[in-house]
Structure formats: structure tokens, C-alpha cells
Amino acid sequence: MRLRYWLTRATALLGVFLLNGCTQVPEGVTPVSPFQLQSYLGRWYEVARLDHSFEKGLTEVTATYSRREDGGVKVINRGWNNEKNKWKEAIGKAYFLGSENVGSLKVSFFGPFYGGYHIAKLDSDYQMALIVGPSKDYAWILSRQKHPTQTQCDVYFKAAQQLGINQEQWIQVQPCR
Fold first, then answer.
1. Per the CB 3.0–4.6 Å rule, which of 104, 131, 132, 134 could disulfide with 116?
2. Which domains does the chain have, with CATH numbers?
3. What is the C-alpha to C-alpha distance for residues 116 and 162, in angstroms, rounded to an integer?
4. Cβ(140)–Cβ(118) under 8 Å?
């Protein structure tokens, strides 16, 4: 009976550890601070992303952020699936991991499972952002403009490269001009 108790406790602790591990800031990434959520809310266009299954084949991808009644952030990700000839949409929720003054959140699209959402670079007028997920295998470059300039994009690709994200791995969703 005592063994069962300890196995149950150990399994629960492992579960907590694994769930928290999905929200931690990856090594070498420093979330932006000071951060103002109100300035970040609204629609962003996905300029580039690293390949992952939940956005595979999507184009015209946007992320729209708004306040939730519970103080969190409503997240609506939307993209066009050419193969199925229809829009794919995912609605999630996000909450700050600590201070609202730091651009580090946890986001969920699947019940109690959260992943890290860390704003690693953000320009002063909140027009472009580099987001890193729970590891450097998940990253996005977002812009308020559908087609930012090549100069703007290069600044964010270089910042990602300095974090150890290989520029050749990016899928460019919206062409830079």
C-alpha cells in the first residue's frame, strides 16, 4: 500500500514537471521587458515559422489576440489550407507566466496542456515580433503588415540566428518586400 502511495505521488510530480517543462523559457532566450499587452493585442501576420504539424501546409496565417474576461488572452490562429480548400482555425487561451511586464506566456489550444510563448524580440512600436515556443524548435516571426520590408525581416531572422535558430529551417509564409 505504501509503495502504491509513493508511485502515485511520483507519477503526479512527473506530470507536473513535464507540463511545466513545456512552458519554460528555452536556454539563451530572454523574453522582452518591459512589455505592454495592450499594445500587443490585435492581428498579426505570420511572416515565417519553423515547420511543425499543427500548421503544416497553411498559408495566409494570422494570429489575433484579445483580452479574456478572466484576465487572460484569447488567441485565434487562422490559416488557409490549400489542399482542403478551406480555412483552419484554432482558438486558445494564454496567461502570463509571471509579471505582465515580461513577454512570457503559456498558451493552450488543448485543454490543460500549455506550451511556452516567449517574445524574444519586439520592436518599440509593436510592429514585428520574434516568438520562441517551449524550445527553439518552435519559432515564429510575426508582423502587423502582411508584407514587411526585407530589411525588417532580416533584423528578425538575424536575431533568431543569434539564438541558434538556423535560417535555412524557416518556412516563409508571407514574402518580405
1. 134
2. 2-172 (2.40.128.20)
3. 20
4. no
DSSP character string of 43-75: EEEEEEEE--GGGTTEEEEEEEEEE-TTSSEEE
Q: 86 vs 59, 76, 78, CA distance in Å?
A: 11, 16, 11
Which cell numbers in the block locate residue 156?
528578425
Which has the higher per-residue pLDDT, 1 or 88? 88
Q: Which helix (H) or strand (E) holds 164?
A: none
Q: Please state the length of the chain.
A: 177
CB count in 10 Å sphere of residue 67? 12
* Amino acid in position 61: V
Is the separation of the CB atoms in 107 and 75 below 8 Å?
A: yes
pTM, rounded to two decimals:
0.86
Residue 174 has φ and ψ, to the nearest 5°, of: -115, 125
For strand 128-132 and strand 139-143, is the pairing parallel, antiparallel, or unpaired? antiparallel
Cα–Cα distance, 139 to 175 (Å, whole number): 17
Contact 116, 99 (CB under 8 A): no
How do residues 30-53 score in pLDDT, each as one tens digit? 999 999 999 999 999 999 999 988
The answer to which of 19-28, 91-100, 166-175 has the lowest mean pLDDT is 19-28
Measured over the CA atoms of residue 78, residue 116, residue 113 and residue 48, the dihedral's sign is positive
